Please model this.
Amino acid sequence: MSTYTPPTDDIRFVMTHVADLDGILATEQFGHVDADSLAAVLDEVARFMADEVAPTNVDGDRIGSQWQPDGTVVTPPSFAPAYDKWVASGFGAMPFEAEFGGADFPWISAIAVQELFTSANMALSLCPLLTQGAIDAILAHGSDEQKATYLPKMMTGEWTGTMNLTEPQAGSDVGAVTTKAEPNGDGSWSITGQKIFITFGEHDLAEQIMHLVLARTPGSPPGTKGISMFLVPKFLLNDDGSLGERNGASCVSIEHKLGIHGSPTCVMSFEGASGWLVGEELDGMKNMFTMMNNARLSVGLQGLCISDRAYQQSLEYAQERDQGTAIGAEKGTSSPIIEHPDVRRMLMTQRAWIDAMRALTYTNAAALDRADAAAASGDSDEARRWRELADLMIPLSKGVCTDVCNEMTSLALQIHGGMGYVEETGAAQHYRDARIAAIYEGTNGIQAADLVGRKLAMRGGAVITDLLDEFESRAEELGAIDGLSTFADRLAEAVGTARTATAHLVEHGPSDPRSLLAASGPYLRLLGTTVCAGLLAKGAIAASSADDFDPAFLEAKVTSAKFFGEQILPTTAGLLAAVTSPADDLYALTPTQLL
Amino acid sequence: MNVIVCVKQIPDPALPGELDADNTLKRDGKLILDESDSYGVEMALQLVTAAGGGAVSLVSMAPNEEVSGLRTALAMGAEKAVLVSDPSLAGADALTTAKVLAGAVGKAGDYDLVIAGTESSDGYTGTVPEQIAEVLGLPSVTFAKSIAVDGDTVKVERQTEAGYDEVTCPLPAVVSVTAGVVEPRYPSFKGIMAAKSKPVENVTAADLGIESVSWAQSITAVEDAPAREAGEIIEDDGETFNKIVEYLDNLKVI
Ligand SMILES: Cc1cc2nc3c(=O)[nH]c(=O)nc-3n(C[C@H](O)[C@H](O)[C@H](O)COP(=O)(O)OP(=O)(O)OC[C@H]3O[C@@H](n4cnc5c(N)ncnc54)[C@H](O)[C@@H]3O)c2cc1C
Model:
């Protein structure tokens, strides 16, 4: 039951018909990439992930990564061979600068590779994911020497990276970190402190680990303004670039956790470890933010990935398990459970949300690419427009996909009945693995706060209303297509609901920040669901007249979008009251009364 | 040392296949590299590396100038390909295929060795490599589980039911390679990008001097594989192991 069928057609469909891949490839920056080569690359990545990585997923969960008393961490035996082949493939370097061994491909292509990897094995995929984050940080803020020294091997994956933010007292509140950095006088710093929850902080997949560590320098102001970013290699480098002495950074234990057992979550102890500043002193938090978009989008993508993997398995089970006689089936016969309406609803709900999540995350990636391409060509207005759209979509991608993923993996498990609750089928693994995505990389509570704080404030809410305007015209276009007028009506209504909600928050938010934050969770879901529907409508319109895919495939795309629009999208109306109600309702009971 | 590998591009076995009116497999969609040919490609790449130089070339026959499967083999490291694409060859039998591929081998330049899979994963006739050898007038060695080239000769470990034979034969020769004997590499990103610009020469049957193509073999009927028969259920009464031993003994497996 551990097979994975890579959805290469679905990916290609969303890229071409929703995220406007052609538009990305028409820019000067990405003009060197052609759609056929990209498709050829994705086909090979898909085959690699299905054949080599997907089979490691169950072992990864059952065996897990193990901490050894000597401070090393042993990953499940199937991981290293798969990881070595990943390094040999060179796929990880695709989206990065050619100067350091990359290929200058658009981010959307990296997102596709990431989807395939994450669905194949989420726990293992975290290692290249964190490496990617570290690469981003060094690329954006590192010195030329740091880039030349570290990036080539990090891009291939021969060396891996980590992000060390969290400390026991500093989780959502990153400004509370206490890890110290003292200057050594020779340009290096001495880092001392304890970090917790560090993904792949120690492991046996690569010879070298580059830790990016947030720490405080002497005399720095309190809070986020006093934080600097340091590069702390596991092994110090000799002058010739070879690995030298072990640095003072070690893994003192790993967590026993609900899911992603293959991914070691490390307590890291830094004891006078040698580190080097990345970017300017005190710019740590600001610099962290420049790479936050990519990281948050990737975690949102995990929501899509695990939903899809769990869905594939539940779809197979629904066709194999016979139980009861479905309406219309011959009396006395036993029907596959897929014939029961309630099971169909669970399958359709998963299917529609998976299409929605893919539309959302890939469009988000495309906006990042268009912003980069416009900035590179010197068109600052165009760059700002795409950047705003990308920024708006980040908390939606992260928050909605990872919340929904908990529901979808739960449905996939439910379809298995009692067998879903026992570990043997593997349905439970997806449910457990998925659960972390709503928590790390900024909890979904923090995403919601980001949406109603920073994102709603962009151009006084106009970034959101511009997008809603676009969806409103799309609803009209949709209504003209045979069979899609109900979807069109629901879309227009949902746009209206989203307008009301947005206008309410824009008007009352500034004077009543507590109510604004109280509304943030339901508003995130309301707006996110509406944006998903608007993007699915775009795909449905394209699919209605396209001929570049199998007709049955295109028909399924339209049907799935229509189901989302008619049966899932209307739930947004029910969220409006929670958005417009004052926070007082939430505080009406004292903590004692809450007992 | 130059090696030519015959590779077949087949409909994705993961998808439900369909038959044409003449009972041959429908091949009008996207085709992929037959997995059983990926071993030959890998073997050829290893031989060329071991020889310290030379090139691996591909020959293939496929409809609609299909190159997807060839691109995979080129991305693995082959240098060029000759593709025979000709509507008159649709549904060709094994011997015709062998004649066409032998002609394509002639177009692919100098060679020391021709490698093919023992049988394709969609047709399973398992006769084409030997027929190619006959058409080319070359020695044929089948079921290779390993190949080593030593000067003008090739040493092959030839898989048999009992073990393997050690066969030595002069070059050039046609050797068919058993599936699963080497681990085919995955194309790397760089390999895939490089494959884009590697030459694929498209030719027709006529270009190979093969005129008035026709064949005597046809598929008269296709039947579903018989359903698996119900197994025998033995209740455990504490002595069941005897029955299992007896059963296995009857099968002559113990
Ligand atoms: C498996 C795993 C891997 C991880 N990997 C890494 C890693 O590689 N590097 C790293 O640095 N960290 C990592 N983390 C840490 C992770 O990012 C934090 O756990 C997360 O940011 C939440 O912090 P916390 O656990 O302290 O929760 P808290 O911040 O204590 O949050 C508890 C609850 O309070 C809510 N809350 C807190 N503050 C606010 C607020 N201001 N407004 C509204 N709600 C709020 C939260 O939403 C949450 O529901 C990982 C964690 C796990 C479990």
User: Anything to note?
Assistant: Chain A has 19 helices and eleven strands. Residues A 130, 163-166, 171-172, 197-199, 257, 265, 436, 439-440, 443, 445-446, 449 surround flavin-adenine dinucleotide (CB under 6 Å).
